[in-house]
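Lecture notes, structural biology module. Today: joint structure prediction for complexes of two components.
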Amino acid sequence: MENIVECRNLTHYYGDKMVYEDLNFNIKKGSILGLLGKNGTGKTTTINILNGYLTPRSGECIILGENSKNLSPYVKSQIGYLIENHVQYAFMNIYQIEKFYSGFYPNWKRDAYYDLMAKLKVTPKQKISTMSCGQRSQVALGLILAQDPQLLVLDDFTMGLDPGYRRLFIDYLRNYAKAEGKTVFTTSHIIQDMERLIDECIVFDYNKVLVYMPVQEFMTTFKQFDFEVTNPNVEFDKGGLVENYEKMDNSIELFSYSTEEEVKSYLASQGIEYSNFKQVPMTLEDAFIGLTGKY
Amino acid sequence: MWKSMFYKEWIKVRLASILSLAVGTVAILGIYLNVRHTFIITNAHEFWDGIINQRHIYFKLFKYIPLGIGILIGLSQFLPEVKDKRIKLTLHLPLNEEKAGLKMVAFGLTCLLTLYSILSALLILPGRYYFPYEVVALSANTIIPWFSAGLAAYFITGLITIEPLWKYKVFYTLLGFAFINLFYQSDLAGAYQYAWLPFLGIISLVSISILFSIYRFRKGEM
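The predicted structure, tokenised, for the full assembly:
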């Protein structure tokens, strides 16, 4: 399948602080890739590199066949970009902002924008700066839908949205992307609801990529096992079978890609006495926290 | 695309433009009320002697108004762009980034030249009622550096506002202050008669300096 985005060996530092080294990922045409990570792990840095606002120390991103450092006006017209916090020209109103953007895009879909705006309880003359965060998110989304780009790049679009607007945004976006064959690259540090949206995920931790695989594969292979240990001072070595673990007194939550039998064998081989062993079903958010830790 | 770009810029600066025009007009009205008052009620002879023989400027009240307008238009145009890093939206438009920046500057320049033309006409033309041609011509020569300072202030305000790093902002501010100060060195009418052309040359170079800030923003200096 054709790749809309190809990022090769991306390395970036802020001064001496490494963000990541040799990051590689592709986004297939028609797929929705979620870049998940805690604050400060490099999500917005990646978006900035992708949009040409930041030159990586080394490596490159190819978007629709062009290096992101020098995107042509045509390729930029094929990228719908939603900035963190749904930033738009807040000094304009709904009517003015549509009039402004429509002049730049020959295939502008005015109806797509106004259909979405009709659902908001705002007047056409109301300035965007006076709208709620949820309403602003819909304006930003409506503008992207009207632009009708091939690739949608959404930077932490869930930020500031209440559960209703978050769900509305995600459902509207997924239906649109799947119906129109659009490719979506989104970042988020709020994992709730992302399960409903993304096909593939990359999970960032500080300086490294923990996961890069289809969400379904991640959710079936990554598991949580809960049990109680006799010795509360027990410690586990991370990196082998144990991806991560959380301990509270005698209770252990252990996260692993291994099967239940493999984990039990591992515990036995380490001489760890345990009881009440069970595999616990996880949401994507549980899996994310399990993988990256609570701190 | 020019039309759309100008539309956005107009929304940003329209209030500042109207305010500038209003303040400039009120100041000019004040200047001519004062001239009329001097001619009719106080010492017309002394006033006339000051203008003809000592090259006094009868419209000194207007001196810093073009400068203020340049800064105000610059701020109203570029501050909304840097708030929440909205410049990213502008640079993401399907345009060459440099062209996008220059179109913004072209609009600001057009707006300023329009305001300055109106205010110049309001300031100079009524002078013909009170003064001979030579005095009016000298007045026109006198206000050129003030308007030039306004243009320079506009470009430098854009450069400083778009600049992503504070240390550069401070440096440009000091540099800009020193440069603009050159336009206000003399209080004699027509003092810059032979100097404003080189100044305009420097200003036209400053006019594209915003591209440097945009380039640095795109390199990731945020």
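Point to remember: The two ends of chain B are 27 Å apart (CA to CA).
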